[in-house]
Amino acid sequence: MSIHRKRFWLLVIYLLVLLPFIGYGAAQALQTKVNSPLDWVDGSFPARADYDQFREQFGNSDTVIISWQNCTLDNPDLDELVTALRTDPVFKDDSGQWYFERVISGRELYRSLSSPAMRLNEREVHDRLDGTFIGEDEKTTCIIVSFTPAGLLKRKELVGNIQSALETHCNVTEDECFLAGPIIDGLEIDLASKDSMDRFVLPSTLMVLLICWICLRSLRAALLVFGLSLLAQGITLALIHYSGESITALLIVMPPLIQVLAVAGGIHLVNYYFDAVKDPQISSPAAHAFQVGWLPCLLSAGTTAIGLASLLVSGLTPIRLFGGYAACGVLVTTGLLLSLIPGVFTVWPLKRPSKLTTDQETLQQDRHDLWYFLTVIINHNHTVVASLALMAMIAAGYGISRINASVRIETLFSQDSKILHDYDWLEDHVGSLVPIEVILTCSPKADLTFREQLLMVWHIERSLRKTDTVNRTISTMTFAPRFPRPEHMSDELFQYQLNEALTGFKPQFINAGYLKEIDGKQLYRITAYVSALNDVDYNACLDQIGTHVESALKNKYETIPAGITTQQTGIMPLVHEIQRQLMQDLFKSFLFAFLIIAVVMTIVQGGLVAGLVSMVSNVFPPLMIFGLLGWLAVSVDIGSVMTASVALGIAVDDTLHYLTFFRRHLDAGHSPRESVLHAYRHCGTAMIQTSLICGLGLLVFAMSSFVPTSRFAWMMAGLLMMALLGDLIVLPALLLSPLGRFFALTPKSEHAH
């Protein structure tokens, strides 16, 4: 037995030993963990740090908002439901700890503010609660449930228990209730992630196998490539598990991505082997396929890994995880392909064709094949093709300047999804659902009485209600009683008594969650509500709120008193910062990938101009697709961001295979036209096959109800088709133009010699 066969069998034995561990790790990684858009950034992200501090001060903001058609102020069923939510054992852990921080009922709140102690008439109560806890019909209300961190980990089970309690105590079925809030957002992302796996992984896998079989026209070769792609998937998933992570909704497309990349690389190697089998002068086709393919395969894997690893510069956690693990998966995949495909064909070679074509027959066929005619057409029109490509890229570049990013709820789910229907109903019948928290901090340096501090809160709240985007507000003053001034009482005495009375209400304000005392400081909470679904410009909205808060303080005081500070936080400011981070990541990761790959290409091609020319066909796909998004005013989401750098890395794959054969033929003394035709015939078919398999294999996920996954799939398919156009049309046009002379490393005189 030769040394090569011994190495092959040792590798197979090692893989068989590791297979149970790979299978277990992959299965564990597929157990999706809790997903939430808020978890896309960690505590080092400034806006997330502010939001976490707010949650520590005023309680958890992970809430569920509950309502239904008959959820009204006069419905006693609400009291039964609230009692069940507070006392039922299913909402407590084994030690009796409650999974909720608080349960707020609009009906209870209305009765509390209507009590004699508050001295409010019915109109005043409605003025304080309409648009937040009471709808426009002045009857419909809601229940808000705040989860603890322990409850957040069991949100799927707890939301199911809430729906069961609704049916038991209010006769409201799952389809009849309307749920919204961060808890529901995260849960729906979990469900969409699981749905994508359950519905699309198997069809995607079968699609890849079928097209692989059709393209290779050999069941054994198709099963070999397909089996290695599954092994590469398993190893990558096991790596995720053993490093302490698991699949999230945004990592769900990574396993099929690894699979199609493995299939793409495998098809190139198998095609090299098929070409060698047809040549009677090659005694060892498997070794020849390895010798021909190892360099472009390694270079392709390296550049693809660079494209994926460029996502590590992202400030968003799921994008970093995707980039890191996918880059590792690509390198593992390449090692498997280069070792196992030649090894299998060495041990179990394919039979050579019974009738080999003669050189004369081959020449006759070559003169009439597709690649010959394509070479002739591009050779005569290379200036036109290159000019059109350049103009298209310039137009697309302008379109990119118009791109906007969004991670709002309506960009995560399809328009006919239940979650968006629930949001729409709740905003129509109860009020706006997205809170912006303004925190007013008064330290002892401010030297203001409690009444004066509350008056400052009142001025800020009145000013916020004048903004275009803020629909309603709630503050500490919402829970304050009305104190009519007795006749003949002096201002000084009334203000003193009012301050004492309001100070006596501090426990109620604290219990309501709108006042916090920390180290002698008073923290007042003012919540401004804006729509979750309307086309609100978050940037303008936050600027307006900041301006109104500042003007309210300056109108009351010429200069803001010492010891008074304000801060904006909440879901929307955090989402706004995530959107800005998305745009930064899009350009940072792409620029990083472009620069590194460009450096690699200049080294590989042996010249600065040659390397930059070879990059044109690689920049062409993302530039065209993202430029089109900009022109069509389609917002970029988190799924879209991941495609630019990934597509750049994949596009380089085919470019390197093509240029490897072009350069080899050119260095052998042939003309650029003959070298282009030679490269077409050796890897053109494989390039079409890989693009077809990668595109259609991922396109199955375009039917996912989770929009980032769906958009990632169709954008990747579009980018791969554009990459194929760039490699088969734009790149040959550049090589046949005067720029092609920069690829000639050896002077003609040396060839003649």
How would you summarize this macromolecular structure in one to three sentences?
This protein has helices spanning 3-29, 46-58, 77-87, 106-113, 122-129, 149-153, 155-170, 182-216, 219-242, 254-278, 285-309, 317-347, 359-366, 370-380, 382-400, 418-429, 450-464, 491-504, 506-512, 538-556, 571-605, 608-631, 638-667, 672-699, 707-736, 748-752; strands spanning 63-68, 100-105, 143-147, 177-180, 434-442, 472-475, 515-518, 521-530, 564-570.
Terminal-residue CA separation: 43 Å
- Strand residues, percent: 5-15%
Count of runs of 4 or more consecutive helical residues: 26
Low-confidence stretches: 358-364, 747-753
Task: List strands and helices in order, with pairings.
Blueprint: H1 3-29, H2 46-58, E1 63-68, H3 77-87, E2 100-105, H4 106-113, H5 122-129, E3 143-147, H6 149-153, H7 155-170, E4 177-180, H8 182-216, H9 219-242, H10 254-278, H11 285-309, H12 317-347, H13 359-366, H14 370-380, H15 382-400, H16 418-429, E5 434-442, H17 450-464, E6 472-475, H18 491-504, H19 506-512, E7 515-518, E8 521-530, H20 538-556, E9 564-570, H21 571-605, H22 608-631, H23 638-667, H24 672-699, H25 707-736, H26 748-752
Antiparallel strand pairs: 1-3, 1-4, 2-3, 5-8, 5-9, 6-8, 7-8
Helix pairs in contact: 1-9, 1-12, 3-7, 8-9, 8-10, 8-24, 9-10, 9-12, 10-11, 10-12, 10-24, 11-12, 11-21, 11-23, 14-24, 15-22, 15-25, 17-20, 21-22, 21-23, 22-23, 22-25, 23-24, 23-25, 24-25
Domain SSD: 609-737
Protein name: MMPL family protein
Membrane topology: Multi-pass membrane protein
